[in-house]
Design brief:
The protein is built from 3 helices and 11 strands. The protein is α+β, with helices and mostly antiparallel strands and 224 residues long.
């Protein structure tokens, strides 16, 4: 945020919250009635919750919550630009994201079908055709410092520098939605006994004029 700090004055703020959303491309390797194995170019946090989106033939995407049970590095490969990138495989469990009726049906099937399913996502089925999927993880944050060019937020997520994320900032009257790039990540002072948190510096990317006006109005309100 060094360049934007010279162009925009930054203000310390409180009681301003929002969330950031990171989208990841993935490929489904196999699946069962309770979960699936995927391949992706990003490491997933074991125990973390992610939203999985699948395209369907009728055009309506299928979206549901999953939990990461395991994640491991399987290989390194070169992309189209010749750069080496890591490839990870992960196991996702989506039974906790089902409603009560779906869980009852799943429980019946687990008791009566021949293939045994367990927490390691065995009893898996191969797909007739490879299927692409999109993963999204959402993290809430509190804004600590704000300008029209970016902000410093406190969150439990420690993203990699230069990561591009989707941002939602709640101004009280509206929600500003824009994209941002991670410029800095430092440990933040968290409450004793609470989860570790991080101070993440974000630079706004392509902030629309109406959203810039909303942030300017928010700053004016906070400084009154």
């Amino acid at each position: 945020m060094g360049r934007e700090a010279r162009r925009f004055r930054r203000y310390d703020v409180a009681e301003v919250r929002g969330s950031l959303l990171l989208s990841l491309d993935a490929r489904i390797l196999n699946m069962s009635l309770t979960g699936m194995a995927i391949e992706t170019g990003s490491v997933l946090k074991v125990g973390g919750d992610y939203w999985l989106r699948l395209a369907q033939q009728d055009g309506l995407p299928l979206r549901f919550k999953t939990n990461v049970k395991w994640c491991r590095l399987v290989r390194n490969e070169r992309d189209a630009a010749g750069e080496v990138r890591a490839v990870y495989q992960a196991g996702l469990d989506f039974r906790d994201g089902l409603d009560d009726n779906a869980r009852q049906v799943l429980s019946f099937l687990e008791q009566h079908i021949v293939v045994e399913l367990d927490r390691r996502l065995t009893g898996r089925f191969g797909l007739a055709h490879p299927r692409a999927a999109a993963l999204a993880v959402r993290h809430d944050f509190e804004v600590r410092r704000l300008s029209l060019g970016g902000m410093l937020v406190e969150t439990v997520w420690d993203p990699a520098p230069d990561t591009t994320v989707e941002l939602e900032i709640h101004t009280g009257k509206t929600v500003v939605r824009t994209r941002g790039k991670v410029r800095s990540v430092l440990p933040a002072i968290g409450s004793p006994g609470g989860p570790p948190s991080f101070a993440v510096g974000l630079e706004f990317l392509g902030l629309a004029p109406e959203d810039q006006r909303s942030l300017a109005a928010l700053l004016e309100t906070l400084l009154e």
